[in-house]
Every structure is written in C-alpha cells, then in structure tokens.
Amino acid sequence: MTAAAAKVTVVDHPLVQHKLTLMRDVSRSTKGFRELLNEIGMLLAYEVTRDLPLEPVTIETPLQPMEGRQIAGKKLVLAPILRAGVGFLDGMLSLMPSARVAHVGLYRDPDTLQAVEYYFKSPSDLADRTVLVLDPMLATANSAVAAIDRLKSRGAKDLRFVCLLAAPEGIARLQEAHPEVPLWTAAIDDRLNDHGYITPGLGDAGDRMYGTR
Ligand code: PRP
Ligand code: URA
C-alpha cells in the first residue's frame, strides 16, 4: 500500500482570492501582475509558515523580564523556480528576511513539456533546513518534480511546495513523485489544455511577469 499523500491547502483568504482574480484578468498590466504576485507571496508566506515550531526565549521589556517566543528548529530556504517563482521572492523575504535562497533554473520544453535545467545554485547544507519551493504554476508538475528531485539530491528532506494555481493533474503527479511534500495553493483550476496550460488559468506566468512573449 502506498503512503497517504501530504496535505493540499487551498488558501482561500479573501485578500488572496481578490488579488488572484485581478491577476487572472487579461487586461492586467505587467506592473500590476508583478505587484500582485509579490503581495500574494507575502500572504502565502504567512500560511505556509503557520505551523513552524516556537521555543521560549527570555527577554527584557522596558518594564521587566518576560518569556517570549521565537521560531525554533530548522532554518528556512526559499527555492524559487526560475523565472516565475522569483515573483514570490521579495514578498516572502520581507517576512523571512534571514532565509537563504536556492535558485532553480528550469524551463518547460514547449513540445515535450519536460523540464530542462539551466541553472542551480543552492546553500550546501539543505539537510538541516526547511525548503519552501516556489512557483506560481503547477501544471504538469514536471518542473516541480524536477526541482524537488534536484533539491533532494543536495540533501533536502523537509520540503514544502507553494504555488498560485494548481491543475488537478499536477497535484496528482506531484503527490505520486513526492508524496511527503505538502502543497499550498491559492486555487485548484479545472484542467490542463492540449498545450499543458492551466485552464482557466492566467496564461504564461513568466511572460506576464516580465513582459516577454
Ligand atoms: C512555467 C511555470 C512553471 C512551469 C509549470 O515555467 O513558471 O515553472 O511552467 O509547468 P509544469 O508544471 O508543466 O512544469 P516556464 O517553463 O514557462 O518558464 P518561465 O518561468 O521561465 O517562463
Ligand atoms: N506555465 C505557465 O506559466 N502557465 C500555465 O498555465 C502552465 C505552465
């Protein structure tokens, strides 16, 4: 019997849903798209870190000593999948300013839909860290699976995947390849089209973010 897959969390907070709808709109400018992705990144960071363990710490307020709480345990690594995953980075780093960053450069071959690696740079000690893999789009999941394979080859054991839109097909594939990796997304859309695009989706996230085509 295969192990049960880790949890999928749909972040249905009204601010996230409102901003996501603005992003999907074909008339949204590159500037607006980028700003919204950054803002949603901040809101998703809040959700994906909700269960991080805390430990007591004694501090002095101006009036007296007290026992406060601080984040304990493993240090965080943010691992954006280039290019579009970078859109989450600033928003997340503004809440987690000490996090390390691992850049995973992948592009999807338009004919085969397979992920092709062109860059990888990561802290060396991933075994002792919690790694948040960032990519707005989980379509076939070929990119997500390849990125997680690569991060695991550098020792990562505690990984979480954060996206904006997920296709049901991508969730199934990610859970099959890496069943222990939990997933956070702002929405689960209907399906993939014949070109591997998420529908209704928002189009090509990298192109919309950087104004390329
Ligand atoms: C997009 C997106 C994901 C990938 C998702 O990247 O940002 O990385 O496709 O598709 P998948 O789940 O089917 O692998 P793309 O390859 O277009 O590169 P870009 O971010 O540089 O535009
Ligand atoms: N990559 C994107 O940017 N959008 C999709 O819908 C699928 C893959």
UniProtKB/TrEMBL annotation:
Allosterically activated by GTP. GO terms for molecular function: glycosyltransferase activity. Transmembrane segments: none annotated. It is an enzyme of class 2 (transferase). Pathway: Pyrimidine metabolism; UMP biosynthesis via salvage pathway; UMP from uracil: step 1/1. Its cofactor is Mg(2+). It catalyses: UMP + diphosphate = 5-phospho-alpha-D-ribose 1-diphosphate + uracil. Uracil binds at I198, G203, D204, A205. Binds 1 Mg(2+) ion per subunit. The magnesium is bound as Mg-PRPP. Its EC number is 2.4.2.9. Residues 10-212 form the Phosphoribosyltransferase domain. 5-phospho-alpha-D-ribose 1-diphosphate binds at R83, R108, D135, P136, M137, L138, A139, T140, A141, N142, S143, D204. Keywords: Allosteric enzyme, Glycosyltransferase, GTP-binding, Magnesium, Nucleotide-binding, Transferase. Belongs to the UPRTase family. Catalyzes the conversion of uracil and 5-phospho-alpha-D-ribose 1-diphosphate (PRPP) to UMP and diphosphate. NCBIfam families: PRK00129.1, upp. This is Uracil phosphoribosyltransferase. The lineage of its organism: Bacteria, Pseudomonadati, Pseudomonadota, Alphaproteobacteria, Hyphomicrobiales.
